[in-house]
Amino acid sequence: xxNFLTIxxxxxxxxxxxxxxxxxxxxxxxxxxxxxxxxxxxxKPSLRTKVGTEAAINHLGGNVIHIDADILLSSGKAIPFTSxxxxxxxxxxxxxWCDAVFARVxxxxxxxxxxxxxxxxxxxxxxxxxxxMQALADLHTLQQKLGKDEELTVAFVGDANNVAFSLIEIxxxxxxxxxFSGPESYGWSDDQLRYFALLAVQYKGTxxxxxxxxxxxxxxxxxxxxxxxxxxxxHLYDEKIKHFKPFQVNMELFSQANRNAGFMHCLPAHxxxxxxxxxxxxxxxxxxxxxENRMVVSKGVFAGLLTRESKELIKNGEQKVSS
Length: 323
Known about the structure:
The protein is α/β, with parallel strands linked by helices. The protein folds into two domains: 7-131 and 294-309, Aspartate/ornithine carbamoyltransferase (Rossmann fold), CATH 3.40.50; 134-290, Rossmann fold (3-Layer(aba) Sandwich). It has helices at residues 12-28, 48-59, 69-72, 87-97, 108-117, 132-146, 162-173, 190-203, 213-216, 237-244, 251-254, 277-280, 287-306, 308-311, and strands spanning 37-42, 63-67, 100-104, 122-126, 153-157, 177-181, 206-210, 222-225, 262-265. A five-stranded parallel sheet has the order 7-6-5-8-9. A four-stranded parallel sheet has the order 2-1-3-4, with helices on both faces. Helix 1 crosses helix 13, helix 4 (87-97) packs across helix 5 (108-117) and helix 6 (132-146) crosses helix 13.
């Protein structure tokens, strides 16, 4: 059994297999998930992740079962009746009925606990530290737009969050150049920076940080940003926006990248905050292709993990560097 919790669990050739398999299934899907039941457990709201993935599973003939997160993700205590049952017991039951669990949770530790108690694959639909499904869709979009064999430069301007982390991981694993710019007070930890440096050395990529976003976008093939206010951080808006205002992706900044550079955003976007309308609606904006690819890559991940002929090809690779 393989889980899909982080990008670090897979080597580049395994990731590329998933992307190629996804593209193939999107054109010739033929019931690869017939008879498979996928449990969806969402602590956080979702549009692209939930609808796109459910559509992908439906296209492949599978079934989705929605489980209330409050029922499954209990505190682990049975006394004094603060929850219905332990996560261990709940996961052992779900493993009897379902073939995989797709979970969007607040804490990455929750996913690790689910995987510990489960006998079926756990797929990360987003947590506080990682968003691997988004990273797959982003790399797929970049390859569609710019080719598989090109060495790319991608600028991420904004918050050092879960989306940025998984994106940087996957780009470095493919030997690309990542240029990051955001407020120092909301930047990467020393451990994260060391991890990126190790990935860059191991896979021959490049990672740099820049105080000035204009420096970060130089020679970029794509500029990526995300919301500054992640789910659960709404109360921090006034404080964070003061730091992030200089990092808005507007036409002045966008025009400093390569002439045909694309704009990327995982969505939902807050127009007029992290990005202006003229950028997100630009002819070189790839945000809706990214959104479509959330569905496309879900096909390869679920069919890859759950069909016998593909399991052997995407077994977890050795983690030479840990996140």
